[in-house]
Amino acid sequence: MYAGFAVALTWVDWAIIAIIVISCLISLKRGFVKEALSLVTWIIAGVVAWMFGGALAQHLTDFIEMPSARIIAGCAILFVATLLVGALVNFLISELVRVTGLSGTDRFLGMVFGGARGALLVVVLTGLLSLAPVQQDPWWQQSSLIPHFLIVADWSKNLIVGMAGQWFASSLHAPS
User: Fold this and answer.
1) What CA–CA distance (Å, rounded) separates 95 from 80?
2) Rounded CA gap, 34 and 165, in Å?
């Protein structure tokens, strides 16, 4: 410890550290390739379900009477099917990485990925909690780490709102 430098960590600071460390350890075990492919698979599954769930729902009229239930079922079927295909691809590519002998590098990069994912999770949780009336609570005010994650959460929110505004503005203009 440095002379004159001491930081008292609260329970919430330890919880933040635990979230990041657990995420690192999970990703260290699974490796970067599995973690990255899993993330990509979830994103693709969401996009596929969103884009094509309605089309699949039209083919379910003989099986499901309620229109909203058909759409939910169509989206769920596509989401799960995409996750299953992604899991198979993930397994095959992970086996390829294992056979090539890159597992040490893969696991180290996985740990870095897990740390970033854990930090992102803390940023999202901090941003969401800041919307609730927790800012007067002693655990929030006494935390050493929350202010740092709150800065990133505010920056992220401003970035997302700005990008969404530009996207909506550009999508409102009809092509010439």
Assistant:
1) 23
2) 34
- pLDDT-derived band at 100 (thresholds 50, 70, 90) equals confident
Taking the C-alpha atoms of residue 75 and residue 52, their distance in angstroms, rounded to an integer, is 7
Q: Which residues contact 121 (CB under 8 A, 6 or more apart)?
A: 19, 23
Task: Pick left, alpha or beta for residue 66 (phi over 0 → left; psi -120 to 50 → alpha; otherwise beta).
Answer: beta
How is the chain split into domains, by residue range? Answer: 30-100
Q: How far apart (Å, rounded) are the C-alpha atoms in residues 143 and 21?
A: 18
DSSP H stretches of helix in the chain: 11-30, 32-58, 67-100, 103-129, 138-141, 146-172
Structure pTM?
0.72
